[in-house]
Amino acid sequence: MVCYTGTGVARTVPHSLGVAPELIIVKSRSIDNTWTVWSAPTGNSKFLTLNLPDAQGNSGGTVWGTGPSSTGFYVGVDGTLNASTATYVAYLFASLPGISKVGFYTGNGSTQTINCGFTTGARFILIKRTDSTGDWYVWDTARGIVSANDPHL
Question: What is the pLDDT along the chain (153 residues), one digit of tens a residue?
């Protein structure tokens, strides 16, 4: 997690994750705005919005611009990430074998198994369709992850 203050000028925000993040979720703490999401599968020219069911949007470089590195992530001039004097919190995620997995899959319209490589099962799963509108889905062990019709948010 990284907290920073916006400048209104495109720049790189430093982080100490030690690897390039594969998923970044940013929310302003001082202005009413959306949760903006970058992911490696959707790339630098696209963005998702955590609190809306919208399909991925085109950033035109004003949102992300370039991908993150092991030391920082780029924020463009878009107000959801970098409005002058606004404060932000960014949640950074990366894959670590046996601990976490960030990735994507192509749905087939019916039941399918997605193997993330966890031998003891997952504790938290977040999924969003990117090619069309659709809700974000969250499954976690507090509600039960077993099979078939598991409770979700």
Answer: 999 999 999 999 999 999 999 999 999 999 999 999 999 888 888 889 999 889 888 877 788 888 899 999 999 999 999 999 999 999 999 988 878 888 888 888 888 777 777 777 777 888 888 888 989 988 887 777 766 567 777
Its pTM surpasses 0.85? yes
Angle at 110 between CA 35 and CA 22, to 5 degrees: 35
Q: Which helix (H) or strand (E) holds 82?
A: helix 79-82
Residue given tokens 């630098």 in the structure block: 44
- Tell me the longest C-alpha to C-alpha distance in the chain: 47
Question: Which amino acid, 83?
Answer: A
Report the DSSP beta bridge partners of residue 49: 36
* Tokens encoding 134: 């659709």
For the record, the structure tokens of 23 come out as: 């998923």
Tokens encoding 64: 């992300």
Quote the radius of gyration of the chain (alpha carbons, Å). Answer: 16
- The rounded distance, in Å, linking the Cα atoms of 127 and 141 is 15
Alpha helices in the chain (DSSP H): 79-82
